[in-house]
């Protein structure tokens, strides 16, 4: 288990700005960052796919630009990993003493199994990773990496202790809105890809049950879902508000939200400095 309880970053913020999949979209990230900054948000968390660490382009130039812009707004950005990262590159950066993998002084990766205590005393855990349903169209080591999959070691690192907040990329099983959409839509993916994706989701679900969070925030499915689900593993029933944020790049999609760490309530906002609705 990777723990961090010291000052700064996730453990100090009273409100955290969350973004859905960004896929390396610089304009979207910077627009949301300015909007969040205007609302006093200094910490941003991308629920992956971050997409800036990707082969075939000048990723270092992009990361440096993003870091400079975040410095100007006094913001830090952290991200969980998903299935759209160059893991060979990502894992070249060591995990620091605070449990985070710092790519730049204000940009950090949140490893699987990371835990911290928030300013309110609530606990947060992270479990990134997801299996690419389109793996048949990708090339190992160039556009897909085996490390995208959640492993037994990741679940061991996560542990079985309760966390109030879980952040990740995939979604738990038994999410009616998502399940209905997956069943009703002809996505055109081959059976092997669907099985591989389902295996990854099942692994994530095991971690979800280990943590039994009050609220979960994820991405991956390029849809917005906000649903209260009940699970009964063993002899204990628990409820979780499962929130999936849409992918970035749209001014109208629900791709960003602000979490109040005291109440664990979310406020959805547009990316263009217009307040959306509050839950």
List the main descriptive attributes of the protein structure presented here.
single chain; alpha/beta; disordered N terminus; eight-stranded mixed beta sheet; 24% helix; 6 helices; 279 residues; seven-stranded mixed beta sheet; 25% strand; disordered C terminus; Purple Acid Phosphatase, chain A, domain 2
Description:
- This protein is an alpha/beta fold.
- It has one domain: Metallo-dependent phosphatases (Purple Acid Phosphatase, chain A, domain 2, 4-Layer Sandwich), CATH 3.60.21.
- 24% of the residues lie in helices and 25% in strands.
- It is built from six helices and 15 strands.
- The strands form two sheets. The protein has an eight-stranded mixed β-sheet with strand order 5-6-4-3-2-13-14-15.
- Strand 5 (101-104) and strand 6 form a beta hairpin.
- The longest helix is centred in the C-terminal third of the chain and has 21 residues, at 191-211.
- It is globular, with a radius of gyration of 17 Å.
- Mean pLDDT is 92; it is low at 2-8 and 275-279.
């Amino acid at each position: 288990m990777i723990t961090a309880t010291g000052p700064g970053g996730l453990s100090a913020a009273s409100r955290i700005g969350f973004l859905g999949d960004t896929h390396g979209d610089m304009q979207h990230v910077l627009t949301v960052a300015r909007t969040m900054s205007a609302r006093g948000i200094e910490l941003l968390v991308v629920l992956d796919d971050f997409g800036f660490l990707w082969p075939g382009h000048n990723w270092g130039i992009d990361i440096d630009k993003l870091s400079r812009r975040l410095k100007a707004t006094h913001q830090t950005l952290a991200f969980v990993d998903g299935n759209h990262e160059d893991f060979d590159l990502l894992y070249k950066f060591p995990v620091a003493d605070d449990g985070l993998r710092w790519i730049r002084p204000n940009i950090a990766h949140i490893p699987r199994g990371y835990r911290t205590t928030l300013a309110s005393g609530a606990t947060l855990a992270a479990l990134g990773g997801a299996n690419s349903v389109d793996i048949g169209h990708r090339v190992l080591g160039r556009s897909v990496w085996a490390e995208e999959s959640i492993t037994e070691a990741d679940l061991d690192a996560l542990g079985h202790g309760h966390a109030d907040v879980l952040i990740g990329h995939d979604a738990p099983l038994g999410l009616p809105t998502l399940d209905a959409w997956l069943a009703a839509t002809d996505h055109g993916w081959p059976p092997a890809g669907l099985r591989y994706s389902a295996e990854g989701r099942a692994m994530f679900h095991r971690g979800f049950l280990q943590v039994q969070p009050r609220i979960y925030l994820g991405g991956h499915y390029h849809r917005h879902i906000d649903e209260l689900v009940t699970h009964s593993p063993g002899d204990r029933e628990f409820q979780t508000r499962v929130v999936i944020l849409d992918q970035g790049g749209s001014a109208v999609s629900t791709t960003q939200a602000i979490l109040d760490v005291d109440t664990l309530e979310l406020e959805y906002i547009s990316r263009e400095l217009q307040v959306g609705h509050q839950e």
